[in-house]
Amino acid sequence: MMDMYPKLLVDERGKKYLLKKDVKKFGTDLGVVELEEVGKTYYSHKGYKFYLVEPTMYDFLKRMKRNVTTLLPKDIGFILARGGIREGETVVEAGVGSGALTMYLSNAVGKSGRVIGYDIRVESLKVARRNLLMVGAIKKGDKIVGLDEEFDDDVEVEDGLFNVTLKLGDVREKIDEKDVDVIVLDMPDPWNVIENAKKVLNKKRGRIITYLPYIEQTKKVVEKLKEEGFWDIETYELLERVIEISEKGVRPSTRMIGHTGYITFARVPPEESEDDSES
Ligand SMILES: C[S@@+](CC[C@H](N)C(=O)[O-])C[C@H]1O[C@@H](n2cnc3c(N)ncnc32)[C@H](O)[C@@H]1O
């Protein structure tokens, strides 16, 4: 994983730096550190302590390039858990944005599953492609379907999952995949996707998940889901509080994120059975 930035340098204050694998010397305001093996403690020329370790996916999420608002861990985690997204499933996602959610979807469905990420913006797809390449969700040289462009990648992850396909496309018009287990929509007008979603979702376990910043949008999507017979519909908003623990005492941080989005979950209706005789 994360072959391009396989090193995470952490100073005594907890400040973190993602470093390229060939970096052997790094300068900070706490001095210059000579770096060798990952998994060791080093000291700068000023005597400050540093850890050199592997970054987690969370470290990468916090520092990756982005050109749209990305989902936060609290919402990503709940989408995976309440959505019941598991190994082997086929997930369609739109829009991919910078690929924050895509990274975690890729991990959840594993080697035997796949994630197909749509976006209508080439710039979003290119940023997502780069991020996903670095975490081994896509392979060096992989193209974006629908975009006639070759990529000359300088990153190669050997043991990635390689289970994500990126597509330039509007899911309001068409979803190419069939027998889809989960559709996740982080886009402004998901109600325009519900009819397409209903056609391609697996009737045994197909689910849809939408993420929207406004309650008016959420009401509109829920009304459309009901109209199309979707069931097990639930909407959530999650609040996160960081707890500060110090000598003086323990209390929630005085600052918190006020609002991110409303997350709605629903299941597709099964087909009518052919035998409609009453027993
Ligand atoms: C807020 S961003 C998604 C962020 C993403 N969830 C992440 O965590 O990085 C919304 C994205 O939806 C894309 N989008 C909007 N309408 C779309 C549509 N009809 N089909 C596909 N993508 C769409 C936009 O181009 C934009 O990149």
Automatic annotation (TrEMBL):
Superkingdom in the source lineage: Archaea
UniProt-listed SUPFAM superfamilies: S-adenosyl-L-methionine-dependent methyltransferases
Species of origin: Methanocaldococcus infernus (strain DSM 11812 / JCM 15783 / ME)
Binding-site residues for S-adenosyl-L-methionine, renumbered to this chain: 98-101, 119, 170, 186
Protein name per its UniProtKB record: tRNA (Adenine-N(1)-)-methyltransferase
Gene Ontology molecular function: any one: tRNA (adenine(58)-N1)-methyltransferase activity
A Pfam family annotated for this UniProt entry: GCD14
Keyword Ligase appears in the UniProt entry: no
GO cellular component, one term: tRNA (m1A) methyltransferase complex
UniProt keyword NAD present: no
Native organism taxonomy: Archaea, Methanobacteriati, Methanobacteriota, Methanomada group, Methanococci
A single BP term in Gene Ontology: tRNA methylation
Keyword vocabulary terms for this entry: Methyltransferase, S-adenosyl-L-methionine, Transferase, tRNA processing
Cited PROSITE patterns: SAM_TRM61
Domain tRNA (adenine(58)-N(1))-methyltransferase catalytic subunit TRM61 C-terminal, first and last residues per copy: 64-246
